Amino acid sequence: MSHTDTHAVPDDHLMGVYNRAPLAFERGEGARLYTVEGEAYLDCLAGIATTGLGHAHPKLVAALKTQAEKLWHVSNIFRIPGQEALAKKLTDATFADVVFFTNSGTEAVECALKTARKYHWARGDGERVDVIGFEGAFHGRSYAAVFAAGNPSYVEGFGPALPGYLSLPFGDMDALKAAIGPTTAAIIVEPVQGEGGARALPEVCLTGLRALCDDHGVLLIYDEIQCGLGRTGKLFAHEWANDAAPDIMCVAKALGDGFPVGACLATAAAASGMTVGSHGSTYGGNPLAMAVGLAAFEELSNPATLANVREISGYFYQQLAGLQDRHSDVIAQVRGKGLLIGLKLIPNNREFMAAAREERLLMAGGGDNCVRLLPSLLFTVEEVREAIEKLERACERVTRKAAA
Ligand SMILES: *Cc1c(COP(=O)(O)O)cnc(C)c1O
C-alpha cells in the first residue's frame, strides 16, 4: 500500500464523505436540539425528514425501552410478531398486500428494484429489465440506487454504468412515452423530489404515469422515503392524486423517527417473484425496529397529525410568501408540498445555511440551489413564527455580507 502512504490521515479518522457543519448535538426534545455546550437550535431539518415526530417522543422512547429489556434480535428464520403487526398496519393503510422490512431507505429501494425485475422474469418476460428514473431524483447510495437516480456526481468514478437504468427529464411525459417499451420493467419516481430540491410532480402526472404503466405492462415504483408518512399532509404523497396507486413503494426515514427502519411495500402480484430464498436481511425487521415503527406509525397515521401538517404548512407558506416579498434578493422561489418545503435561493445555499445556523436554525440543503425546511410533523404555530424570525435575520445577514 506504499502509494497511499503520502495521504494525510484526517484528525477524526472518518472517511471524508460528508461536508459536516461544525456542531455536535447531545440531546433533543421535540423541535429543539441542544449542543454539548447547551445551546438550543430550532430544528427544521429533522435528520433530513427522519425524525418526523420530533426528538425523544415520549411514546417512542417508552416503546424502545420496553422492547430493549425483552429482545433485540432474532433471525428472520423465525416469525417476528412485530413485523406481522406493522405489515398489517401498513397494508391496511395502503394499496399494498405485502411488506419486506429493511434497515434503510436504500435497502428498500434495492428490494423494490429486485422485486420489479423478478416479477417480469417469473412471468417469462425476462427481457423486461429496464428501470426508468428521473433527473434530480435521489434513491439512496447502493450501486443500483445511484444508477436508478442517475445523478452524475453520485455515479462518477464508480466504474462502468449498471446496465438497464435510464434517466429522463423530470415531469417530461413526452420523453417518457418515447422511452417506454417492451424492455421496460419499471418506472421509479418520488412523488415529491426531496434532495432534488422539494419539487412536487403535478398530480395529473402521477395519474398519467399510472395509466402509462398499465398500458405497457410496466410496474410503477414510488420512492416515498422522504415525502411519505405524513410529510405532505396525507399519509402518502401520491394520495393527493386520483387513481395513482403504485405497484411497489419504498418507505423509511420517518417510519422509525430516527431509529433505522425501512420497508418495501408491494401488491401480491408485484411481489409474486419474491419467493423463498430470493431476498433477505440479517437485521431487517428486528424486534427493536418493529417496536419503534409500530409506535411511530400510530402517531404518523393519526388524523390529527396529518391535519396539523396541512394547517401548519399552510401558515408556513403564507409567512414564507411575505418573507420572499421582503427579501426578493435572497429568495427566488418558495415551493414544495406540505412540510417538505424548498426555498430556491439567489445567494449560495450553503452560505445561507451557515447564516441560519448563526441564528440557531437548522435546515437541509438541496439540489437546484435550494434549502429545505423539513420540520417535525408536530411543529406548532409558535415554532413557525420563530423559524420565520430566524429566516428573516438569516436573509439580512447574507444581504449585509453581499453588500460588504
Ligand atoms: C433518504 C432517501 C433515500 C435513502 O435512504 P437511506 O436511509 O439514506 O438509505 C432514498 N430515497 C429518498 C427519496 C430519500 O430521501
The CATH superfamily label of the largest domain reads Type I PLP-dependent aspartate aminotransferase-like (Major domain)
Count of helix runs: 12
Largest sheet: 7 strands, mixed
Q: How many structural domains can be distinguished in the coordinates?
A: 2
CATH architecture of the largest domain: 3-Layer(aba) Sandwich
- The string of secondary-structure elements, in order, is EEEHHHEHEHHEHEEEHEEEHHEEHEEEH
Number of distinct beta strands: 17
Characterize the overall form. globular
Structure, described:
- The protein has 404 residues and is α/β, with parallel strands linked by helices.
- The protein has 2 domains: 23-56 and 303-403, Aspartate Aminotransferase, domain 1 (Alpha-Beta Complex); 60-300, Aspartate Aminotransferase, domain 2 (3-Layer(aba) Sandwich), CATH 3.40.640.
- The protein has helices spanning 46-49, 58-68, 81-92, 105-122, 143-149, 152-155, 173-179, 203-216, 287-300, 303-326, 349-358, 381-403; strands at 25-29, 32-35, 40-43, 98-102, 130-134, 165-168, 184-189, 192-193, 199-200, 219-223, 248-251, 262-266, 331-337, 340-345, 361-362, 364-366, 370-373.
- The chain has a 7-stranded mixed sheet, sandwiched between helices. It has a 4-stranded mixed sheet with strand order 1-2-3-15.
- α2 runs antiparallel to α9 (287-300) and α3 (81-92) runs parallel beside α9 (287-300).
- The chain is globular, with a radius of gyration of 21 Å.
- The model has no long low-confidence stretch (mean pLDDT 97).
- Residues 104-106, 109, 138-140, 190, 194-195, 223, 225-226, 252-253 line the site of pyridoxal-5'-phosphate.
